[in-house]
Design brief:
This protein is of the alpha/beta class and 505 residues long. The protein contains 13 helices and 22 strands. Strand 8, helix 7 and strand 9 form a beta-alpha-beta unit. Helix 4 packs parallel to helix 6 and helix 9 runs parallel beside helix 10. The chain starts with 11 loop residues before the first helix and ends with a strand.
């Protein structure tokens, strides 16, 4: 079976090695953007803030992770968080070999209490297999020994899911849990995450979905949570045949996923267009079934490039109900135990580095949060909106960022190809000479790397150095600029750079 994560098998140690980003910047070019402040085109759905990913459930009990979540919620408007392993044996849910006949949800409660206390709802990934229910104990992966075998009995699995969900309803209230989402497993089409077959997964989904709806018909369940948008026709066909609920459809896409698997042809799209094209395909697959109109959740995707984040989100708006960036924090130990706080090249999955240091991806999400609820007409690389006090537009200089696996945190190299651009932004409907506020994020501004390099690129920064790096990485206050007589503002953006332009009425 094709596995986009087979790079892991080449040796986890290589993933921790530093590798310099290799820029290949051309000469300055000019690009034009026009934003019509007078013309709304409809609602701007903030699909990027509905969810973000994390490591495993037990990591959420750490003070450092909870601090990162709290900050992410406060500064980006995050609504939900998704993580693996709520049934892992490291939470003691049902490890087997014990006298007790019932599962133990003590640590599960601690996990969800901590998330909810920070104003965030859980997006519940039902994984992995409790040892008590597992069909085997040899398929143990990751640093936390996740059991990825199917259940010995789908019926017993369904009974367990029913007990689990009833416990959540009893503890948190039916009204609250109706706002949650229950996603069955994670990437069952990859042998790294599931040792069973497609039929095994379908049986698991059937048992879980029926158990959840038996607790309350308005609880939301979905799947198949596959890598690379696989199994869609088969999954939806099975669910229709068995008359199963699919309240939402979830899948994962990374820019480096095998395009022959995705589209039937290798190298059909550049990296920047893989995720939007895959989402368009999945949307059409859903709408060709009885589940037409079901919410599409891209429950894993990732980029560490500010402009790529903006471009992908902008082009997925017609298709997705939610996009869950993987992941919030570099408090992350799925593959190995990171031996760095910052490094050159690929700096890990997290949008917030360890010790609470913001990275450009996090600061990009902060800018996205300042967009308003109504979309404005725009041409060129821009996402424009009407806000409560005026208008805000995110503008970007897209570059090709090549990482061998297409996934931040999985690649040793980060090769950037692009050119610095002067972007001429015309704000139609604004007064000549009107003042605007401009905020920037790129790999130098809103980034910890320049200060870290200035300090000698320490592998283990001391407390004083960490504080210096953290302060330097914060999003700078906006600069005030004025439009010229043609209502044009010229921005100088390096490759990967984004700028938020805000104007008051």
């Amino acid at each position: 079976m094709w596995d986009r994560r087979e790079i892991i098998g080449a040796g986890a140690a290589a993933l921790a090695a530093s590798a310099l980003a290799k820029p290949a910047f051309g000469q300055t070019a000019t690009e034009h953007v026009e934003i019509d402040l007078r013309r709304e085109t409809g609602a701007l759905d903030h699909i990027w803030s509905r969810c973000a990913g994390s490591d495993r459930a037990s990591a959420t009990m750490r003070e450092s992770w909870r601090h990162d979540l709290e900050r992410f919620r406060a500064e980006t408007g995050l609504e939900r968080v998704r993580f693996h392993g709520i049934f892992n044996d490291d939470l003691g849910v049902w490890p087997g070999g014990m006298n007790g006949k019932d599962p133990n949800f003590q640590n599960v409660d601690d996990v969800y209490d901590g998330v909810l206390a920070r104003g965030v709802q859980p997006f519940v990934e039902l994984s992995f297999m409790p040892k008590k229910l597992a069909s085997g104990n040899t398929k143990l992966n990751f640093t936390y020994n996740a059991n990825i075998t199917p259940p010995a009995s789908p019926e017993a699995w369904g009974d367990f899911i029913g007990v689990f969900v009833r416990h959540l309803v009893d503890r948190y209230g039916l009204g609250a849990v109706r706002q949650w989402y229950f996603e069955v497993w994670n990437e069952p089409n990859l042998t790294w995450f599931f040792s069973g077959t497609q039929a095994d997964y379908f049986a698991m989904y059937k048992a879980a979905a029926r158990a959840i709806k038996a607790v309350d018909p308005k609880l939301r369940v979905g799947g198949p949570s596959t890598a690379a948008a696989q199994w869609m026709p088969e999954f939806l066909g099975f669910c229709a045949q068995e008359n199963l609920p699919v309240d939402f459809v979830s899948t994962h896409i990374y820019a480096g996923d095998d395009q022959k698997e995705l589209f039937g042809q290798a190298n059909l799209y550049p990296h920047k267009d893989v995720i939007p094209a895959a989402m368009a395909k999945v949307r059409s697959q859903i709408d060709a079934t009885r589940y037409k109109g079901a919410e599409l959740w891209l429950s894993e995707w990732s980029s560490d490039s500010p402009a790529m984040i903006a471009h992908v989100i902008n082009n997925c708006l017609p298709y997705c109900h939610a996009m869950s960036q993987w992941c919030i924090s570099n408090v992350f130990e799925e593959i190995n135990f990171p031996n760095f706080i910052l490094k050159e090249g690929d700096g890990g999955w997290g949008m917030i580095a360890q010790r609470g240091i913001p990275r450009p991806s996090f600061n990009t999400y902060k800018l996205l949060h300042r967009l308003g609820p109504r979309r404005l007409a725009a041409t060129g690389p821009a996402l424009a909106s009407k806000t409560r006090t005026g208008a805000a537009a995110l503008i970007w200089n897209l570059a090709e960022v090549k990482q061998p696996s297409g996934i931040p945190g999985m690649s040793k190299e980060r090769i950037v190809t692009g050119e610095r651009k002067k972007i001429e932004v015309k704000l139609t409907g604004a007064a000549p000479g009107k003042s605007v506020r401009v905020s920037y994020v790129d790999q130098e501004r809103g980034s910890p790397l320049p200060k870290w390099r200035e300090l000698g690129s320490p592998q283990y920064p001391n407390k004083d150095q960490i504080e210096q790096i953290r302060r330097a990485a914060e999003l700078a206050p906006p600069e005030t600029r004025r439009l010229n007589d043609q209502r044009v503002l010229t921005l100088d953006l390096p490759p990967e750079g984004v700028a938020l332009v805000e104007i008051s009425e």
